[in-house]
Amino acid sequence: MNSATDSTKPTLLFVDDEERILRSLRMLFAANYRVLVTTNGREALEILRREKVHALISDQRMPVMAGVDLLRQAREIAPNTMRLLLTGYSDIEAIIGSINDGEVFRYISKPWNADEIRGIVGEAAGIAMSIEQSTESARAQSPGAEAQSLLLIDDCPETASELKALIEESFPRTFALEWATSLSEAMAILEQKNVSIVVSEIQVGDDDMTPFLKTLKRFKPHVVTIVLTSFKDSALLVGLINQGQVHRFLPKPMRRVLTVRGIQSGIDRSREIRSRPEIARRHKVDAPVKELEASLIGRIRGLFARAESR
């Protein structure tokens, strides 16, 4: 190995309890990356403490430490490392954990397609390197002082009442609560208000909100999205990770402590992105498979163009 050349390559860390999978991954990536591998989650954490790793790609089901537990601890140890979950199981709790605890960039299913995984991991490593290179120039920026709004999209009056009481008690004077009971109402509020956090149900009346949440994230990654729902569908959640970069997945009925934590985390993330716009690249999304109709896409693009011009 040429150490001089290797020092300029992005570093990837793969974690899987099967040696044959690690060998396959090393062969896929060794030509263009510095590749580290381990079968042990605890060893992976030690590597993160001593090495600069641009992307961590972990399997979920491992005997020593589950992938979600590894990603959660990795987020604390190496927050700038991009985190991806690799698994062959549709484990709903793991998917929810990967959103709420690991804040994953992408969820990759086994068996993977070689070109697809190269593209996803390469994109993650490239984002990590570009953020690293632009950090110094971004430090002089600061978030604006404009009043912020939290937009709830839900047709349940009880949910709106509970969230209003929670915000008034736990987040006084932080932001105004706006409530929409349909996609059309949500769009109208987004056109008029400076929304930094969207809390949305999956199904609102006749409207499936998932294409909207995915499209919203494509045009304005600083808007933090939180899903508040009783739905538990693994394919839907994977899509919300890969195509929507949802920040948190919270259950219904609303659990006070979890909801407060989720909103506080959303506030912190929104402020972080506003103060360091370059890290919005960490939340870049895939194009959704199911698009909104063209008129709504144009409306979303237009409302954000007007907001930026102001």
Q: How would you describe this protein?
A:
The structure is a single chain. The protein is an alpha/beta fold and 310 residues long. The protein has 12 helices and 12 strands. The radius of gyration is 20 Å and the shape is globular. About 3% of the residues have low confidence.
Q: Give the strand line-up of the largest sheet.
A: 2-1-3-4-5
**Count, helices:** 12
What would you call the structural class?
alpha/beta
Amount of helix = 40-55%
Instruction: Report the count of strand segments.
Output: 12
Round the Cα radius of gyration to an integer and report it.
20 Å
Biggest sheet details? 5 strands, parallel
**According to CATH, what is the class of the largest domain?**
Alpha Beta
Mean pLDDT: 83
CATH topology of the largest domain: Rossmann fold
What would the principal axes of the Cα set say about the shape? globular
Quaternary organisation:
single chain
Segments where pLDDT lies below 50 for 5+ residues?
136-145
- Helix and strand pattern: HEHEHEHEHEHEHEHEEEHEHEHH
Task: Supply the number of structural domains.
Answer: 2
Cα separation of the termini: 53 Å
Beta-strand share of residues: 15-25%
Give the CATH H-level superfamily of the largest domain: Response regulator
CATH architecture of the largest domain: 3-Layer(aba) Sandwich
